[in-house]
Amino acid sequence: MESVRRKDVPVVTVLDPKFKYEVAREPGGENIKYCFQCGTCTSGCKVAELDSKYNPRKIIRMVILGMRERVLSGDFIWLCATCYTCHERCPQDVRIPEVMNALKNIAVREGYIHPAFRAQAELIAGHGRLYEVDGFANEKRTDWGLTEIPQGCPEVAEIYGITGLHDLLSGGAGGKV
Amino acid sequence: MKMAVFLGCTVPVRNLSYELSAKRVAGELGLELVDIPDFSCCGYPVKSVHHETAYLLAARNLALAEERGLDICTLCSACTSVLTEVSRELATNEILLDETCKSLGMLGRQYSGKVKVKHFVRVLYEDIGLGTIEKAVKRPLDMFRIASHYGCHYLKPSKIYDGFDHPEAPESLDRLVAATGAFPVDYRTKKDCCGGAILGVDEETALSMARAKLDDISNRGADAINLICPFCSVMYGANQRKIGAGLNVKYDLPILYYPQILGLAMGISHEELGLMQNPIRPRALIAKIS
What we know:
The structure holds two protein chains of two kinds.
Chain A: H1 19-25, H2 40-43, H3 46-50, H4 56-65, H5 68-73, H6 85-89, H7 96-109, H8 115-127, H9 135-143, H10 154-163, H11 165-170
Helix pairs in contact in A: 8-10
Chain B: E1 2-6, H1 11-14, H2 16-28, E2 32-35, H3 44-47, H4 51-67, E3 71-74, H5 77-92, H6 94-106, E4 117-119, H7 120-136, E5 145-148, H8 172-179, E6 183-185, H9 203-219, E7 224-227, H10 230-238, H11 240-247, E8 255-257, H12 258-265, H13 283-289
Parallel strand pairs in B: 1-2, 1-3, 3-4, 5-6, 5-7, 7-8
C-alpha cells in the first residue's frame, strides 16, 4: 500500500467535496455528517494516546473536507482497535469505529488494503477460519476429550465468490487490490 | 438449558483450556453446550475489508444454529459482537433479511431470523444467575485477589447488548468473581482495550496497550487476571514474556479464564480445568489452593 504523504511536501490535494456522501452511503458510514469536531473520540482513544498517526477526529475532518485520496491511501485508517470507547461517548452518534470500517471497505475497493488484513481474509477463505485446524491440532483436541473440527469449510470460499471479495482479492473482474 | 457453542477461530486452536473449562462448568450448572462442527469464522476479521462478506459469514453461522433450533453461546467477545449485531439486524429488518436469504439460498441454506446470541459469561450472569453460582461453590477462593479484564466487545457497542452491564462502569465480571469467594481487584485501567485488533498493523502500539494494564494489575498485587476473550489472552498471556523482555521486566501474572476460576471454586481439579495449559502456568496459584 502507498505510504502517507511526507510531511515536508507541500500538500495540494485535489479535494472531492462529494467524498462525505460516498462514505455516508457505505454501511457504517451513515452518520459521518453529524460530526461537529468536539474531539471526544480522540481524547479517549488509547491508540491515539500512543501513536499520533491515529486521530479519529482529524480523519473525520479530512473526509468532510474531501481529502479522499489521502484518507483512503493512508495507513492510519487501519489503526482503529475497534474498542468502541468513542462509539459509546460520541455526543453525535457518529459511530466512529463503523465509519473507519466504511473507509477501509472503500479503500479496499480502490486498491488499498493493509497486508495484515489481506492475509487474514485469505486465511479465512482457505481454511474457513483464521487458523488451520490440522491433524495435529485435532489430535490434541481428541486427547483432551474435545470434538474434532473439520479441516476447511468450502462454503466460506463460496461466500467470497458470491459477494465479490474473491475477485477483489485476486485482482480479477474489476478488483484492484 | 441447551445452546450451540460458538468456538470461533482462536479458542479451538490456541485456548483449549478455555473451551475445556467452559464446557466442564456448563455441564455442572445444567447448561448443555452443543458443538456444531460446520461453524466457520464469525466474520469479524473481514468486517473492515468487506462488509457484505462479514455479514454473510455471520448469517451462515446463525443459519446453522437455527437448523438445530438452538441459540448461540459464544466464548470470544469479537464473535459475540458481530454475531449479535447481525442477528439483531436480521430479526428486525425484513428487507435485509430477504437480501441475506437470497445469498444464503445460493449455499443451500436459509434463515428466518430467530437465533439469539450471548457470551458464555453473560449466560452465567443473566440466565444461570449469581444465586445458583454461589450455591455451586464448594471451595471459596477467598485466598485470591483477581483483577477482571472486561475487554471491549463483551460490553460494547452497548446498544446491541440491552444494557446488561454498563460500558463505563461495568460490574458483571467483578460480581461473578466475588461469587466464587475471591476478592475482585479494582484498578485504574480496567476499561482499557488489550490492543489485539491492531497487533498486525502496529505491534509496538498494540503491545504498549497491553503493557499498561499488566503494569497496573501487577502493582495492585493481584494473583491473576480474569479473561473472557481468546484474543485478550493472546495479548496478556501469549505475549506477556515478549512485552516484559522488551522492557527488561519479568511479569508473572497468571491469566485465568472465568470458567477456570468458577470451576476451581466448584471443587473441580485444576487438571480438569487445564490450568497448566494456560499461556502463563499458574504454579503459585495452584500451590496456594492445594
